[in-house]
Amino acid sequence: VQLVESGGGLVQPGGTLRLSCATSGLIFDDYAIAWFRQVPGKEREPVACVTHVDSSKYYADSVKGRSSISRNNAKNTVTVRLNAVSSADTAVYYCAAEEAGFCTWNWRQYDHWGQGIQVTVSS
Fold it and tell me: Model confidence over 59-87: pLDDT tens digits?
């Protein structure tokens, strides 16, 4: 199983961040896919998640109202978009797959993880 994040890097404050997660080696339709992020010395925190069944979408309070997540079951990818970014959004972002197909904010329940991608919000 592989999850590969792309789209990170340097983003201007107030700009838009778009991250993609490409998956392989799993039955994509069965899995919930989530995005988490982490800064050094802090707990990994949720960003957004999309379920397997009806593609229900969930957002952490920190990004609610300025984020969207979508999945493409034909391409086995999940994309998250984050608008109006600030320095508080600087982190390593991870995508993760949960095989029961349902979203949870408990990162320990996820079965597979990408290697993470750095996002830095700075002018």
Answer: 999 999 999 999 999 999 999 999 999 99
